[in-house]
Amino acid sequence: MTVAQPLETQPTAVPGLPGWWPAVRRAGSVLLILLVLVGAWEGYKALGAATGGLIPFTALPLPVRADDKSMPHVWTIVGVLFQPARRGAEQLLWQILLEAALFTWREALAGFVVGSLVGFLLGVVFVHSPLLERGLMPYVVASQTVPLLAIAPMVVIWGSRLGWPAWASVTIISAYLTFFPVAINTLRGLNSPEPTALELMRSYAATRRQILWKLRLPAALPYLFTALKISASVSVIGAIVGELPSGIPDGLGRALLTFSYYYITGPEKLYAAILFSALLGLTFVVLVMLVERLVLPAQRRLE
Q1: Which among 85, 98, 256, 259 has the fewest CB atoms less than 10 Å away?
Q2: Fold classification of 88-300 (topology level)
Q3: CA distances, 125 to each of 30, 112, 132, 176 (Å)
Q4: Where are the domains of the chain?
Q5: What is the pLDDT of residues 193-225, one digit of tens each?
């Protein structure tokens, strides 16, 4: 009986280049993409100003108005971060948004942990019980077809009747989005070992628990971390959406709602809040990626 051979180790650095070069190359790629996005934004505004808001060589209007009330300049959005959020206020806008982001991240982190644990346990149950997998998997998939905006108010109302704090309801909403990718990828990863490897473990009289921890789980880690990176971003989305009906005065959800009221007079503040929301999700994903690099060698990552 043959056992599947491990993957060959891939070189982590190019011969003749310093070891820090891959990190510099990745940072350069991120910077290049950022410059392209900024150029596309400003180029669209320049196009709208040159054509009077029309698609070139046609009489059709552009899909989005390119005036400063709809699309502020990038430097205007960045500049408003270093101005007081309100007239007479002492705190700058970036300080308020940073505090709101940290508050939202705590809710997202709690939902991320709870949802990941639920998803992982579901994957373990399904891999050991095909009957439960066939019976429950359709409901797991169907749970993600219900609009989050319809679920969030119900969770908040039920939580208030049960006496839960508002942040607990937000955590549940965040966990609702988090568990699905973890459950699916955990199941796929736990089923990834070669049949010959499973037969070899059984020939040694290994128990289900031993097979799980010594064979299935190590094989599932690349799939699991892929799901965790997805879950990290959607947990932030769930937390922001959950804050809207919960009435929590802190957090990015409330900041987005507040600045949307003043969009006509100050659209750059809303865009600044959106920027912080995106940065929060990116930061969370980067943290998961750092943990992945500590846990998994380079040749086993699904990148």
Answers
A1: 98
A2: MetI-like fold (1.10.3720)
A3: 39, 20, 8, 18
A4: 20-71, 88-300
A5: 888 888 888 888 888 889 889 899 999 999 999
